[in-house]
Structures are given as C-alpha cells and as structure tokens.
Amino acid sequence: MATHRLVMVRHGESSWNQENRFCGWFDAELSEKGAEEAKRGATAIKDAKIEFDICYTSVLKRAIRTLWTILDVTDQMWVPVVRTWRLNERSFDTPPPPMDEKHNYYASISKDRRYAGLKPEELPTCESLKDTIARALPFWNEEIAPKIKAGKRVLIAAHGNSLRGIVKHLEGMSDQAIMELNLPTGIPIVYELNQELKPTKPMRFLGDEETVRKAMEAVAAQGKAK
Questions:
Q1: What is the pLDDT of residues 187-211, one digit of tens each?
Q2: Residues in binding site for substrate
Q3: How many domains does the chain have?
Q4: Residue 11 catalytic?
C-alpha cells in the first residue's frame, strides 16, 4: 500500500534546448515554450489538487523558474524551498574532455557565488550520468528521503539527468535502461511510494496522453541532427 507521494518535474525547455544544445551547468533561461510548459505542468498539479510541504531544486534558473511557476499557479509560494548544486544538470554517459582553467566557461562557473562553498575537486570539469547520480544520491539519502519518510509531501524541480538518477535509484533500473529513459520537459511525474520508498505502481505523468506523448517525442529528439 502506498503511504507517500513524490512529485518530480524536469524544467521547461531552455533557450539552449531550443537550439539543440546541452546546457550542463550553463545557466540558460527558459525559452518562451519552456515557460508555457512550466505553466501547463503547474496547472496539471493544481487540477490534481496536490499540495506540498517542502520543495527541492537546483541552483540553475531554468529549474528555479519552473518551480516558482508551479508554486505560483498552485498558490503555494510560501512552501519552503531548498536549492542545491547537487541537483544540477550535467552531461551524458560518456564524459566529455575535461574543461581546463582556460576554457571560456570555467571561470564563469568556478567564480560563481553559488559554488563558493565547493572544494576544487568538487567542481566538475567533466561529468557522466554515473557521476551525476553519485553526487545527487547522497542528497537524496540524507535530505530528501528522510523528509518523505517523515510524511512530508515533496516536490523536486530539477533536470533530466539528476532526476534520472533518482528514478534509477527508486526503480532499481540498469545503466542501459536509465540511458534510454526520456523525461519530458514540464510534465509532472508522480510516484506512489511505500514506507521503504519503493514504488507501489509505475510512475505516472500528469497531463493528457497526447500532450505527454508529444513532450516525450520532443525530448527524445534533442541532440539529434536537425
């Protein structure tokens, strides 16, 4: 029997997603379409009458704005929000070449006040999905999971790869299976969990089937040649 509900949402389309570019830690804005996706997801949550006690997001504005939209539309702006770099986006399964200190984006990230508390070795210069999971899961285990077990109603607004890490953990998915999983932008994902935080039924997308299908097709097409 399900005793807990967890809601997760991948941020709406970003300006870089729109250009078929992978963002990583680059702080891209939501595109106009992404802002509409966030509103659509927020409306789905409102229609489902889902309330939250605490929310988690990354320190990147595309996820934060998506969360703000949800809390605004559902009239829950007062709910506490925890922001952490551990839920940030990163790269795919194969790490890209390491980014050295001369790279254009290295200084913009390493000198960013959001990451002032990170040790040099914690600041990723390249990162795989496996690495992303390795930094996200301790936060899940130490911060989010205890809140859910304590009965808190949790919303996580984050990124494709950090959310895939949580899904992989919840469902015990293989490395290959999680690489093939496409989480649509702006579509809320609902899990019903038992006391051990194991799903009692498959993940459920909030929204009509056609909207969900199109969103999944769109994200699957990202990264492919136009």
A1: 999 999 999 999 999 999 998 888 8
A2: 10-17, 62, 160-161
A3: 1
A4: yes
